[in-house]
From TrEMBL:
PANTHER family to which the protein is assigned, alphabetical: HTH-TYPE TRANSCRIPTIONAL REGULATOR LEUO (PTHR30118:SF6), HTH-TYPE TRANSCRIPTIONAL REGULATOR LEUO-RELATED (PTHR30118)
Gene3D superfamilies named in the record: Periplasmic binding protein-like II, Winged helix-like DNA-binding domain superfamily/Winged helix DNA-binding domain
Name of the molecule in the record: LysR family transcriptional regulator
One Pfam family hit: HTH_1
Length: 301
């Protein structure tokens, strides 16, 4: 790349990275609070200074050229270091208004919200919870585009640009209503297969919760209903003689108000390991470090 002698404004590179991440001038402009013509003008100026074409038309959007990919590969880490250095000098404090967005699963969302609301040390910080996305690709893409600060998930992704930290372990249990005519305090495999079940199919893995977190291969059950929400599943159990497999943290949280029995599973459960995941650019960020430590504090018993 033949770079102009006048040097390149860092703001041009910041806008370039945003367009590169979003693969869209319109979306990048919205994210940066700029106009679409303004962003287009910046790209044109940067291309003139570098003497290369950075994007080409692709369908309804744009695609980066090889030169753009190489530029992003080298520039993005440097911009992240500059951002973290400035943020470190300014120092993060919850007294300054800040909104964090966290992608998470339903059990974690239900557990976190009351703890966040009860936290008197958040200052002017808001922690906003959003449901985790339906595919690993979408989740990684949105985190890469800074649509959220981090994600909490039980999957441990091996994406090279991301890191993860342990949050807490959960496990599978069986629930039944307290007035169940046959199930009383314990359950064995014969009883498990004899009863009807309300099952939960996880959106991303397209597998039932119990099958995903057990060492044994669970046989075919008598399915009375299938849900895509743990809350719906537990509510149906409280009003029927069916059984369901759920995570214990959620079962314990709602057992009393829904009049449920929480039973040890009659098979070998694999721990449900929840982890925090964020882009590498966030690892040294004081604000993101504060957020990760705050979320971990909610699960210290």
């Amino acid at each position: 790349m033949a770079v102009s002698r006048e040097g390149i404004d860092l703001n041009l590179l910041k806008i370039f990275i945003s367009v590169y991440q979003h693969r869209s001038i319109t979306i990048a402009a919205e994210a940066l609070g700029l106009t679409q013509p303004g962003v287009s003008g910046v790209l044109k100026r940067l291309q003139q200074q570098l003497g290369v074409q950075l994007f080409v038309r692709s369908g309804r959007g744009i695609a980066p050229t090889h030169q753009a990919q190489e530029l992003a590969r080298q520039v993005e880490p440097a911009l992240n270091q500059i951002h973290n250095a400035i943020e470190g000098i300014e120092a993060f404090t919850p007294e300054h208004p800040r909104r964090f967005v966290v992608y998470t699963t339903e059990p974690i969302m239900l557990a976190l919200l009351p703890r966040i609301e009860a936290d008197n040390e958040l200052g002017n910080v808001e922690i906003e919870l959003h449901p985790t996305l339906s595919s690993e690709e979408k989740l990684i893409n949105n985190l890469n585009q800074q649509q959220a600060d981090l994600a909490i998930d039980f999957a441990n992704y091996s994406a090279p640009s991301f890191f993860s930290e342990f949050l807490f372990d959960d496990q599978i249990c069986i629930i039944a209503r307290k007035r169940h005519p046959r199930i009383k305090q314990t359950i064995n495999l014969e009883q498990f297969y004899a009863e009807k079940h309300v099952t939960l199919k996880m959106r991303r893995e397209q597998a039932y919760l119990a099958d995903y977190f057990t060492e044994e291969s669970i046989g075919e059950r008598k399915v009375a209903a299938e849900c895509d929400s743990l809350v719906s599943q537990m509510t149906m159990i409280s009003n029927s003689d069916c059984l369901a497999a759920v995570v214990r943290s959620l079962a314990d949280q709602f057992a009393e108000r829904l009049d449920l029995q929480v039973l040890d599973a009659p098979f070998t459960s694999i721990p449900v390991k929840y982890r925090l995941m964020a882009h590498n650019r966030m690892k040294a960020s004081p604000a993101n470090q504060w957020l990760r430590n705050k979320l971990k504090s909610y699960f210290i018993s």
